[in-house]
Amino acid sequence: MNKPLTEEDRTTAVGLARYAYEYIGAAMLVEHNDPTPNQISPVPAYFLALHGIELTVKSYLRHNGVTAKELRGKKYGHDLHACHRKAKELGLLSIFNEEVNDADAMRMLVCLNEHQSLRYIRTGTKDFPLWSLVEPLAVRLHQAIATEVGYKTFNITYHQ
Predict the structure, then answer these.
(1) Which residues does 99 contact at the CB level (< 8 Å), separation at least 6?
(2) Among 25, 38, 33, 2, which residue's Cα sits nearest to residue 151?
(3) What are the tens digits of pLDDT across the range 121-148?
(4) 33: number of Cβ within 10 Å
(5) In sequence order, which residues have a C-beta less than 8 Å from that of residue 39 and are 6 or more positions away?
(6) Could you please report the per-residue DSSP string of 7-63?
(7) What 8-state DSSP symbol labels residue 124?
(8) Which of 10, 45, 81, 99 has the most CB atoms around its CB within 10 Å?
(9) pLDDT given for residue 160 in this prediction
(10) How far apart are CA 55 and CA 23, in angstroms?
(11) Could you tell me the pLDDT band of residue 102, with boundaries at 50, 70 and 90?
(12) Confidence at residue 24, expressed as pLDDT on a 0 to 100 scale
């Protein structure tokens, strides 16, 4: 008799990389098909990109031994800063060349999403990062991590 798969069995680095790829791809579709280009991109594009970045980092964490339970728990949950810190502790920067703009874009995305503000309307002023910073961060991070965990990635190059 086969033992049922546990959440630890089902939550794989490759699976997380796949979901990340799809979220980032969807973010790019939303942004690139915006019929009314403005200074900022559509809010759903930012939300999709942020979630794709989170899943990308979690893919790296899972690949490096962090359990699915830990990823889901209070320690990491949806805290991208905590996930990113742990990924750097586990050697992320040996496979990903993090640029100043990357850190700025990630910080701004996290701030934008405080209190789920990328999902629900919150009044007041907000600082949106330029899409020209967000997309390269999401794609380049995915390229580095997906290659590491064994999943396909984007065939795009960004010039610095």
Answers:
(1) 160
(2) 25
(3) 888 888 889 999 999 999 999 999 999 9
(4) 9
(5) 128
(6) HHHH--HHHHHHHHHHHHHHHHHHHHT-SS--SS--HHHHHHHHHHHHHHHHHHHHH
(7) S
(8) 45
(9) 60
(10) 9
(11) very high
(12) 98
Residue boundaries of the structural domains of the chain = 11-149
* pLDDT value at 35 more than 90: no
Q: Which two tokens stand for residue 94?
A: 């040996």
Which token pair is 155? 């065939």
Q: Which of 1, 134, 157 is nearest to 56 (CA)?
A: 134
Helix 13-32 vs helix 43-63: crossing angle, to nearest 10: 160
DSSP category for residue 92: G
3-class secondary-structure state, position 90:
coil
Tens-digit pLDDT profile for residues 53-81 = 999 999 999 999 999 999 999 999 999 99
Residue type at 155 in one-letter notation: N
